[in-house]
Amino acid sequence: MRSYVIKKIRSAPDWSTTAVMPIDNQPWGEPVDISAQAQICWDEEALYIRQEAAEKHIRREESGPMCRVCNDSCLEFFIRPTERMDFLNFEINPNRAVFLGYGNGQDPLLRIQFHSRRDTVMQEKLDIRTEITDTGWVLTYKIPFALIRRFFPAFQPKVGLRVYGNAYKCGDLTAQPHYIAWNPIDRPEPAFHCPDQFGCLIFGE
Questions:
Q1: Is the separation of the CB atoms in 77 and 90 below 8 Å?
Q2: CB atoms near residue 126 (< 10 Å)
Q3: pLDDT of 10-47, one tens digit each?
Q4: I need a labelling partner for 15 at 20 to 30 A (CA). Which of 4, 8, 120, 133 fits?
C-alpha cells in the first residue's frame, strides 16, 4: 500500500512545495503515453486538490450535470475517511463537469446531485478550475470538510489522522482509452471503485 502525507497549509496552496503523488500504475490494457500526478494539502476547512495530466489528445465532450465524465479525459480522486468501506468519489473533466458519488464498492453508487440553494452554494465552494496546457491539462479544486461530514458526520481532520484514498486518470472514449491509478489495483478488469485497494493518506503538519 502506498502512502502520502497531506501537507497542512495556513494560506493559499503553494503547489511548488507540495509533494507529488504519481499516478503511474497501468494495470489494464496496452501501455499508453499518458501520465498524471496529484498533489493534496489541507487546512481547517478543506482539502485542496491539484491534478495534472500529460496527454496529446484531450477529449472534452461531456458538460451536463452528473454526466459520464469518465468518457472524456478525466481526473479522479476517491477518499475513504474511515475504516469502513464507504467512500466519496470526485470525477472531473476539462470542461469542469463533475460527477460526485458515494459508494462502498458493493452496492450501486449513489450519485450526488445538487438541487437546493444550499447545495448550489456547496457546489460553488468546490471552486473547480481547469487549464489546458501545451502538454495536457491541469485541474484544481477543494473539498470542504462540511461536504465530507454530510456523509461521515464524525469526521474531524487532525494532524496524524490516517484515511484512505486513490487518484486516477482515465478516458473511456478518448483516442487512447486508459485507466491509470496511484495505488495499485489488483483486479482483472478496469475497476476504480475498490475501497479495499486504496492507499493511505496521512494528515501532516
A1: yes
A2: 20
A3: 999 999 999 999 999 999 988 999 999 999 999 999 99
A4: 120
- Torsion angle (degrees, nearest 10) of CA 11, 117, 100, 168: -30
Beta strands, E only, the chain: 3-8, 21-23, 35-42, 46-54, 74-80, 87-92, 98-103, 110-111, 129-132, 136-144, 162-170, 179-181, 199-203
pTM: 0.94
Hey, what's the cell of 43? Answer: 487546512
> Any idea what the CATH number is for the domain that residue 194 is in?
2.60.40.1190
**CB distance 77 to 49 below 8 Å:** yes
For residue range 117-136, what is the model confidence (pLDDT) as tens digits? 544 545 568 999 999 999 99
Helix (H, G, I), strand (E, B) or coil at 86: coil
Q: Residue 79: what residue type? A: I
- Cβ pair 80, 195 in contact under 8 A: yes
Instruction: Return the residue matching grid coordinates 485542496.
Output: 48
3-class SS of residue 137: strand
Number of domains, the chain: 1
Nearest to 38 by CA among 6, 81, 84: 6
Contact status, residue 187 vs residue 194, Cβ threshold 8 Å: yes
Q: Which residue has the cell 500529460?
A: 54
How many other CB atoms sit within 10 Å of the CB of residue 87?
A: 26
Residues of the domain holding 163? 3-203
